[in-house]
What does this fold into?
Amino acid sequence: MEVKILTEHYDKDEYVTLKGYQKNGGYEIIKKALKMKPEEIIQLVKDSGLRGRGGAGFPTGMKWSFLPKNNEPRYLLCNADEGEPGTYKDRLMMERAPHQLIEGMVISAHAVQSKKSYIYIRGEYTYPYKVVEKAIREAYDAGFLGKNILGTGFDHDMDIYRGAGAYICGEETGMISSLEGLKGQPKLKPPFPAVQGYLRKPTIVNNVETLACVTYIVKDGPQVFRKNGTEKSPGTKLFSISGDLQKPGNYEVALGISLMDMIQMAGGLKPGRKLKAVIPGGSSAPVLTAEEAQKAKMDFDSLAAMGTMLGSGAVIVIDDSQCMVDILSVIMSFYHHESCGQCTPCREGTGWLDKVVRGIVSGQGRVQDIDLIETVAKNMMGRTICALSDAAAMPAISFVTKFRDEFEFFVREKKSKVKGDYKIKGLSDAQVHH
Amino acid sequence: MPKCTINGKEVEVQPGQTIMQAFHQMKEEIAYYCWHPGLSVAGVCRMCMVDIEGNPKLQIACNTPVVEGMKISNRTEKVKDAAKWTLDFHLINHPLDCPICDQAGECGLQEFYMAYGKYDPEMAAPKQKKRKAVDLGPTVVLDTERCILCSRCVRFTDEVSKTHELGIFSRGDHSEIGTFENKPLDNKYSTNVVDICPVGALTSKDFRFRQRVWYLKEFNSICNGCSTGCNVKISYNQMGLYRVKPVYNEKVNGHWMCDEGREIYKPVNLDRRLKKARTNSGGKVTEVETASAVRQMGELLKSTVAKHGPDSVGLVLTGQYTNEEYEALISYFVKDLKSKKIFHWKNDPEKFDEFDGFLLRGDKNPNTAGLKKSLDAVGIKGDWKDLEPAHLKVLVVAAPENQVVYPDTAAKAAGFAKIPSVIWLTPTRDTNYDLSQWQIPVKSFAEKNGTFINAQGLAQKFKKGVSIVHDAVSLEELVEMISVDHVHSHVQAEARL
It folds into this structure.
């Protein structure tokens, strides 16, 4: 069921090095791509139907075509601030195939006519940072970066910028603020980054996996890329599968695969356990019940039609040993901690939700709190600069509506329906605000 | 120019204008905290949400440009519900300490709660605890619990004063406004942050706890603190004047004023004023009625001119009086007394021409330009160096209203000691004047109508706002009283008082 295209050579240690990467066909496509016209590459990407792999699933070719037609300097930013709880695919890609990313970035930079790119790596990713840093030096030495790359006249410089561990810096304008040396807070749109981004210059922000895909689209053409996946979600995608499974990990599959197949691929559930719920696209995606999971297909549109989202491809599988109130409490603590604090509904709402859910798990819950969670969350949605508010609200709403009985039980009995007297610690105020 | 419909009414706006600006153009009510016409758009309070036909999501008015044909409303149920909830988000961690809060009565939270809220609070969890009564610097105190993090003050110090003292520290609902270590909020425009704070987070050290705002009335005036002539409003009640705030004037001060200008109410209040005329005969100072003092002053001037010639009487003027007053007094000296001995007393001549590039000027007088104009009209230069005390028998000095900015008052008073009769026309009480023969109380800028011409040459009229010293006269009234027959003027003066 796995379709190894991006990850074809990930099991070879040599693939990390420039030599090993070249031995396995690396840095061949760049030669072809740099001879192509930028518009030709953009057209190929458009034709491929490639959608952003970072979470929003926005068509990459369309994003690139938003750039204004002028001679201003442009920036390409690689979003490697992989922070969505449950996601760890970019980390694998950077650790196992840094040159794959660099090649994809140089080709993409050529397509968008950018002479400078930054890879914004999550602060906690110390090892991937070291690997990519080394690979960039190798690429410079081999002439794949710098002035007049491969004699084509195309100049491109690449740098790494390390984040400081804020989830919000994975939001593209938050990342731009952070890169500019400001507090990592999202910016108002308009203007959009493609028009005024980093240093108020046109800027394209793409995910690690998205940029890596570009090489393969140029190599084989859009039709081959489209052989995998669905009409509207073409290609393969890396999924970070975690939770109550026997073989959790990163799996590359064609988009559109059934969720149950994916669970089987990851070793299936632990013996004697029953599936209770699945979070299909990272902690901000609305949760699916076991019944919904049976029907779910893992592509952007199928999941959207089910009221949830593919997100960054972080599948979190929850079996019947878990308490949904407990899980929501952890998720709410996370968003409370990570809200940047700019917009009132998110700043105050994330804290409020966290307090109400923690109240329930500590046995202080009131009957009206269940409806309150839903109401507060609904009023946080679509009311802020970025999507963090929605990201906190969506799990809250889906948890209390789909697993209402567990919340009601907890409020009534002052204990978990699943774990009985199990005392849920939750996070203390001090931990949240550390 | 794009046309749009706001709450059913069609309006044409400038290209690139936002929905917020269109609402203001139409004088339609719209709620907001973070937006301010003099600052960049932050888009964070989320109060100004509007419903745009065809758009499933509510949009913020402050950052959404008007597009041709847009149909915008902020009166739909969806908007009202959103405003109510956004307000509730503002209030869940707010301490609700209105009874001890200085902002009560002019607080954005109170106002919008009455307009959009009026619900029972649903927040049952404990509120965030934050720092209170934080000393930000010489002028401002911060309460971080009341703060709604609209960032207006931060943007002010970044964009207007360009002093960058303030920032938002930490994240999420534990974010706080603050200053950097050893960098207090200390700039010449700092108190503007108190004006623009929509809640009681930033309060003025000068004003806080001195008066409840609902016991205050306001009148508009022109700041007499320097030659910029900022438009201001002054809060007062029967106890006196309490504070000065800027009034928007695009041509002069925009939305702002300096901290120095906020002090101009102080010399107007009774405790600093000369309440009765004073006369000194042989070291014995006695208080007399103003009308009587003015009459005697007129007699003295006339008899001196008759005895020693017109150039034996002199007049010293500061740029602190109105055009109308200058015209009256100068005309009296030049036409009635035939004296050309008129001199311009400047505060600190070395700094007189300084300008900080924004509002503050070294010329600490509101009407230097008006004085020059009046002197030019009669061909008098008014150079200070031409003043020769030895040749004068009587000197009339229209003293500065705000002595703080005239550091040489004592020296000047001492310099006049050789002149047999010195008459100080002064709004304020100053023991330096006690050596002189006469001190006559005159009205402060707040107590009279008039015109000031500012450094840009803009003539600005202002009106009387209060009456503080009932026995004080304006220079116009004074001239009127001395230039007509004594008995008549006395009757007039009595009638006026």
